[in-house]
Amino acid sequence: MSAVMITRKATRKWEKLPGKNTFCCDGRVMMARQKGVFYLTLFLIVGTCSLFFAFECPYLAVHLSPAIPVFAVLLFVFVIAMLLRTSFSDPGVLPRALPEEANFIEMEIEAANGNVLAGQRPPPRIRNVQINNQIVKLKYCYTCKIFRPPRASHCSICDNCVDRFDHHCPWVGNCVGKRNYRYFYLFTLSLSLLTIYIFAFNIVHVVLRSVDSGFVNTLKETPGTVLEVLVCFFTIWSVVGLTGFHTYLISLNQTPMRTSPSTLGMDMSTSPFSFGPFRLKSTSGIEIFGPEIDGS
């Protein structure tokens, strides 16, 4: 009598994630469902750099230095690597409460607030915690059935709560949060350098060739130069400005306005997360300020 062995494939956690994300490579790649703008970003970077390598680099390598195309290639590879790392990473999705946990929280809230009459709006669900001797209000997520940690937020596009949520960036096709923020910042920083680099050497290339061939003949011989200059010119203002803004936030250990002190129930002039411009301050540890649910 032979025993029949039945093997079942184990269900991974990402296969049960209720959010609106897409996965591939056995869950190693995680992106939002709307990826059209991400492909546009990839096309603009690859297309602009390809034109630069085809039209400007051969001339600049001979007449100036062969290090120019080498550095451009290294910078291009780093930009693409940081873009893909940001786009394919888990931004810091917070797991939703299990049914037992959700029922316990609901019972705890009902015990604190009492029964709400039909037609009346229930009071806000808030829990107080203490961070660096300051009281911070944690908001309840009705979708994930959890009290979100400080500076976490629910992304309406991906339908997930994300820890240290910065924003949902369609240009990278993913949310930007705790686990991929560093790669997003390195992407914007390196893209700023690459854009300025290509723009500057485009100008140098046109000036050098115009001395010998004339300005009009130079543009005819390198038709991609005009397109590169236009793309870089409009990209510089947005990307460099974004990089500067996030550099400022990093220096103070802050996130954008959605998690400013006022949204956390604190005075606008203070923040328990701020390092300050010239000093470091530990923000580790969150102390629960009483088990009660504040419904006021």
From TrEMBL:
Domain Palmitoyltransferase DHHC, by residue range, is 137-256
Query: EC top class, in one word?
Result: transferase
State a GO cellular component annotated for this protein.
Golgi membrane
* EC code: 2.3.1.225
PROSITE patterns membership: DHHC
Task: State the InterPro entries in the record.
Answer: Palmitoyltrfase_DHHC, PFA4/ZDH16/20/ERF2-like
Q: Which Pfam families match?
A: DHHC (PF01529)
Q: Can you say where in the cell this protein is located?
A: Endoplasmic reticulum membrane; Golgi apparatus membrane
Query: What's in the keyword line of the UniProt record?
Result: Acyltransferase, Endoplasmic reticulum, Golgi apparatus, Lipoprotein, Membrane, Palmitate, Transferase, Transmembrane, Transmembrane helix
Q: Where are the transmembrane segments?
A: 37-55, 67-84, 183-207, 227-250
Q: Name one GO molecular function term.
A: protein-cysteine S-palmitoyltransferase activity
The record's catalysed reaction(s) read: L-cysteinyl-[protein] + hexadecanoyl-CoA = S-hexadecanoyl-L-cysteinyl-[protein] + CoA
Coiled-coil regions, chain positions: none
Q: What is known of its domains?
A: The DHHC domain is required for palmitoyltransferase activity.
- PANTHER family given in the database record: PALMITOYLTRANSFERASE ZDHHC9, ZINC FINGER DHHC DOMAIN CONTAINING PROTEIN
Q: Which family does it belong to?
A: Belongs to the DHHC palmitoyltransferase family. ERF2/ZDHHC9 subfamily.
> What protein name applies here?
Palmitoyltransferase
Q: Which organism is it from?
A: Carassius auratus
This protein's gene is called: LOC113058033
